[in-house]
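Dear colleagues,

As part of the handover before I leave the project, I'm documenting each prediction I ran so the next person doesn't have to rerun anything. This entry is a single chain, and its sequence is reproduced below.
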Amino acid sequence: MEFGTATAAADSKPPQISEMFQKFAIAFKAKTFEFFTEEEESAVNSAAVSAAVSDNEDGFTLLDSTEDFITGQKVIIIKPDINLNSKSQSQSQSQNLSSSIIQPFNTHFGNYLISSVFAVISSFEASYLQLQTAHVPFDEQVIIVNDKALVNQLQKLYDFRGLYIDSRKNPDFNLDFTSGSCLEAQVNENQNKLRALETMFNRLQSDIDAKDDKVAMLRKQIREIEECNSKLSTKLSKILKPPNGFLPTIRVFDSMLRDACRSSHRFTKLLIQLMKKAGWDLELAASYVHPNVVYAKKGHNRYTFLSYVSLGMFQGFDTETFGVDGSVSSNDNAMELFDHVSINPLETLNKNPSSPFSKFCEKKYEELVHPTMESSIFKNLDRKKEVLESWKSLGVFYDAFVNMSSSMWLLHKLARSFTPPVEIFQVEKGVDFSMIYMEDVIKKEVMHDKDTSKVGFTVIPGFKIGRTIVQSQVYLIGSKLSK
């Protein structure tokens, strides 16, 4: 047998190792092997070790022995001898013990154990749901009860674990259970599932009831708002006194703006034709209105004259009197709007030349067709029969101007009826194109590169009604054109 070397503190001669240390080494090895072995294998291996040291039973008791070690010595244990014959004999005994201790798994017991575990898990789930729902609204008693239930169910799972381990280790293990125990566990599982579903149903029903209450409250608020709106509408109708319950809207304003633009187009077309008949150089005249403009196509200078007429007519649109000096507004724009619609504008000019509308027409005519321009256009009408035959009489030109002025006057009264009043804006030359505030006036004729285009001049101004923008119509320049 091989031993380690013991060196004494006082003597250099190594002493003999007693039989006690041989027993201690065997016991230490057995306990270490037993500590690191799996639970199911621990019983078999412990039995094997017990058989290996059966001749010396005191080997296990040495761990608790009160016997003192030899003082003044340092002991180093290297390796005990192992008898190969005894080792093979121990392995044979271990196999025999293993075959006798590990029992075949009982199928009926396994079904019962699995059903019971599932029943406990479903009960845990139901209790956990009840615990969660008890927090909102907070119910302390329900929380305490379900908290205890969760602890008990975890303890049951731990007990089932121990029961399973005992059935695998103990050869005499025998559990008395009836044939209906498995079905009883399944019934408990289903009952717990129903309890969990009932908890979820109650929670969802509570949410539905809360939403129903909120809907009822919102419906009540809507009824109150509708009643308030009805009262305000009645009060506003009495203040404005418009016929047929008229109230200014964006759609009505857009429709009347289109009428004003069409009348401006008709008057501009007549003006251009008169200038041609009088021998005017239209390109030169256009350069005086908007200089340094490179037109995309020949004939686009007509947009310059339309801009001249439109911007001249809309000048003063943001004032209460539309820029007519000495005119006094009645502050009842809605009534003036309907009064003007109900009569012929030409009759108003003839019957009441001192009315605000008559002054407006006179002012705008002088601004657009000033005396110098008028004399240049009409000075030779008597001697040019072709002009007279073309126009029949000057009444055509005059009627077009009055109709255009009337549409502008109505649009102004409508704009002042809004609260706050409609705002007008004009885009300056050289500004980058913006799809929000601008519209290309020649979009159907020429396709512009909107990313590089700039405004040449404003043709029709834009309007702002609250947060709504009515785009201004502009002529674009400085871009690559694709025809």
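The chain has three domains: 6-101, 107-214, 248-482. The longest helix spans residues 181-240.

All the best with the project,
I.
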